[in-house]
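can u pls check wat happens w/ adenosine-5'-diphosphate
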Amino acid sequence: MTPTRDERPDSEDSAHTVSSLWALRICELLCALMFATALPWQQPFAWFSVIAGLGMLRWWHVNRPSFRARPKQQRRRIYRIYMWVLMSYVGSACYFLYVPGNIPIQAVLMSYLLGNATLIAVRLTGDLMRTTIALCLAVLPTSIRFIVEGAAGNTLLMLMGIGGICMTIAMVFLSRAQESSVLHQYEQRRRAEAAANAVAAMGLSKSRFFAAVSHDLRQPVHAIGLYLVPLLTLAQKAQDQAAIRAVEGINQSWRALDDLLSQVLDLTRMDSGAVRADLQPTEIAPIVSSLVMQHSAVAEAAGVRVVALVRPGAFAMADGLMLIRMLSNLLDNAIKFSPPGGSVLVALRPAGALWRLQVRDNGVGIAQSAQERIFEEFVQIDNEARDRQRGLGLGLAIAKRFALLMNGNIGVRSEPGRGCCMTITLPRAARPAQPEAADAAHRLDSMPGELLPQTGPLVPVLAMRDVLLVEDDSLVALATRELLTAWGLRVRHVETAIDAFREAAYGEVAICDARLPHGASGLDVALAMRVLGKKVLLISGETNAALREAAQQHNLLLLTKPVSGAQLRSALQNL
Ligand code: ADP
């Protein structure tokens, strides 16, 4: 696409400097002195005074702030008028500075005109039409006179005229070449800017798209999860084995979908810059021991021993939840890739201003060539068949991003057949007045994972009776209502913040969706309900760091969709 003239920078904008003003005036004075050798001195001085006057007027006019504030089109028109008036005057030198028969002074005249032509060609770069007209006005009258008078007997004069015309044509071509080069450069810069803008806009729309998708995708997945508990209860009550197997199958697929959804959305949201780390001095030992405990059942089933050597009192500047997810993934992998009888060691070492948290195993290991690739998305070694049971290949990609968000890193050392050592590096932190780590370890309980209760009664004992449910998604509301009713609770469902306030007297517990219709904030509703004496639970469809921080700040229990029946139950019990 050719840029419009309006978009292009105007070369004359930068030509009116004080130095150029004085340089031109000095040249004019020298020319006047030169012509004064062959003409009565008043004649060339009067001539150059008019040129200097026009030049000064022009300089004064175009440097005024009011002129610079004018639209580019207007400025260009005024530049053009000045240039053409000046060049018409310069061109009339063929009458006023012409000394018939004086070849040297005629040569000086032609040099003066060609000097002007060069100046025009340089100054008007980027505007072929203006350059051509100005050149013709300045040089052609004298050249034509030289040719005409040369034809009448003076070959040198004729050659000078032809030279003037040739020079004008050459200057026009030069100007055209320069114009196309300026256009090319300008076009390249414009394209680069457009590409950078497009990338920025894409990033923005990507982040908006994923914020919306994240919320909208989580709603139905969340609803399916909530329906699973009553469905399993029904199947168990009816003692229908086929139905129980079907529900378990749905449950497994739900888990896989939940995993994939959470990981892909986390990854894309991180890439779009929508995820921030909530960096706090975080104690590492409680997180490690909670995770080792959590993985003990899986490790035992695989015949793998997990040992933790992490001394208490070591604090890192980290986001507790991110650290938990990274470490959990490393432990999963270490156990998964260890042979029966193998062992996994979690160790913490100081390294200057950093902590090195290592997860070592003596499993299959990773070839040198694959060690960089495992941190890329969907990369799995030796799983060409993409067996979902063996993971998604996203865990380490997410772990890497988490590590970078926490100003740390993650690396691998491994030899095939001799095991693998994954190292998370994190900045050290001083022990805070009130440690956060225990809190992070507690939050393990509310992380997605266990979707149906593995053990214990399906109908829990809850110390509440009436629940106000504030949820705008009818599918999710229906599923939540069914589940809560199955647990013996009475539910009143409202969809908007206004209805929630209208029904504020109902129940002792409020479950609020974080995003409500008409831009209302579930957080505000939840806080208002708490002021009215209710216990409140906030459920969000987005993994929004700002919301998480706000919930933490107000000490509100926040669950992220999809929430399983078991999670909802334990959250209600904790209330
Ligand atoms: P996945 O969910 O498939 O485990 P990850 O991103 O966590 O995805 O890991 C990517 C790949 O890195 C794995 O598929 C595996 O090939 C390799 N890998 C990760 N950890 C280990 C380990 N401890 N031992 C051997 N290979 C590993």
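The first strand starts at residue 280 and ends at 283.
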